[in-house]
Amino acid sequence: MESHTISSLPFISIILPTYNRAHLVIETIDSILNQSYIHWELIVIDDGSDDDTATLICKIKDDRIKYFKLNHTGKLGEVRNAGLEKATGELIAFADSDDLWRYDKLAIQVRLLQEHKQAKFIISDGEVFGEINGASAPRESFFEGSLVWPILQEKRFVFYTPSWLFRRNALESVGMIDETLSGGSEFEFFLRMCAACKGIFTNERLVKIRRHAGNLTANPAIGINRYSNMMQIVKNLYYAKHLTTHQYRLLMSNYQYKIGLFYSNSKDYKHAVSNFIGCIKFTPWQWKAWIRLVSAGFRHYI
Structural domains in the chain? Predict the structure, then answer.
């Protein structure tokens, strides 16, 4: 990967994976074209779409857009890595093919990274829109330092992949995305960066996250797999001494509880019971897990 800059401002490589979202990806690209910060390249990695994606993107007359089509893999980590291999920028951003950027997203983030030289990356707050609306809780206005525990708490900050901008040299400490993970590969990659580098969070809502039936996160099976992967990620962070025993137990309990909810909603009460028990083993005082355990157990045995 060859790095360069344009003028006195850092050059940014924006990596956009897509698959059969021709009806949405053009809107995403428009939000990138409308950025007030203009020193970037957009690397679109098409994971073998068989809709009009290629035709529509190739109609856009802008030399900063580079389109590549792969044979379909169905592995988002592999698609993002293909983009990373082609990136030439000093800074790297990820875009998702159904989300939108505020016009000043890149300008604000570049300025903050220039002001805070020790930070290797920046993330921001966002707003949810679409078929599933949700009000965002108030977030801490600004933070610089280790984001590992604050992010895993899911209270102080929030992580949206499209809000992420990082220095390319962070890859020297972090490596590439783990392609073996079937869910949450970008979050595991992000947590490795949090563990290795200082970062920034700003509560500026710089991205708009679309929630719809086509989201990967809307599928219960994917949710179960995602939190199962998170349990392994948390174990790795704990063994590497990035988490205390108390933090580890709270997180493992939380993920067991969430997996139990997914199973309950799918009417798989046997597995729900097992996960609610697992939650209680980590945090016996978790009264909501006791209630869910009794409810799922009753439904399983009637």
Answer: 12-215 (3.90.550.10), 219-301 (1.25.40)
